[in-house]
Amino acid sequence: MLSDIEAILFDLGDTLVSYPVPRWPIMARRCLAGVYGYLVRPEAELPPPAAAVPGPEEARARRAVPGPDTALPHRVMLALRRVVRSISGRTLPRMAEACTRPLVADGRLFADALPTILALRGRGYRLGLVSNTPWGTPDYLWERQVERFALAPHFEVRIFSSVIGFRKPDARIFKAALQRLGVAAGRTLFVGNDPQADIEGAQDAGLRAALIARPGYDTAAAANVRPDLRVRTLTELLAHLPGPAKIG
């Protein structure tokens, strides 16, 4: 039993939502076609965005201000956005969205995700989401995914790497979620499928960690990690989480 847990943070892709990724040549072809179409077609002919696109001021307000300790890939991405906008008049996030559109369109919520989240909320746990965003895609695209699957009302915090500037397994992305929740690391469980990014990253930040290895999972990849809990479905979490610990 994890009887001293107060809060549970989840990974998004392949933990709550399945995003079937085609083989690399197919994905690359789709990506290039999407970006090419975005650059050469008139704005009026483009498909509607997959999510509401924030204006420049709102986008800046959503992002953490980069500092000397900000991860280099994030600083490079911010610089690349400025270059793309100045050269093409288009925004890099919208280009990334055009590339990623086939991936997000095929996303499917795992059948056990929402029932488990509802059950955990009913037991009094505080819930949140911590997710890396692939290929520099903007957070608003993934926020829309969370809304699409009716998950948004259940998460007090939603942390995406493209906003924070750090990717899992960097401890700072987990600490950002803990700070917003106001819960101690030792009383927080992180649930994810990636041995290094999710399990080792969470444990290095002081959290407990549960590895979800769904049917077909490559167990060899997780042979060297020591999660606090291993499950094959999210439903199995309920047997180990009776309700949040009482303090005092």
Note the overall shape.
Answer: globular
Structural class: alpha/beta
| Rg on CA atoms, Å | 19 Å
Per DSSP E runs of 2 or more residues, the count of β-strands stands at 8
Known CATH architecture of the largest domain? 3-Layer(aba) Sandwich
Number of helices: 9
Assembly state: single chain
* Integer tally of domains: 2
Instruction: Output the helix-strand order.
Output: EEHHHHEHEHEHHEHEE
CATH class category label of the largest domain: Alpha Beta
Strand order of the largest sheet: 5-4-1-6-7-8
Q: End-to-end span in angstroms?
A: 20 Å
pLDDT under 50 segments (min length 5)?
none
What percent of the residues sit in helical stretches (DSSP H or I)?
40-55%
Average pLDDT works out at 81
Task: Please indicate the percent range of residues in DSSP E strands (runs of 2 or more).
Answer: 5-15%
CATH topology of the largest domain: Rossmann fold
Largest sheet: 6 strands, parallel
**CATH H-level name of the largest domain... which superfamily?**
HAD superfamily/HAD-like
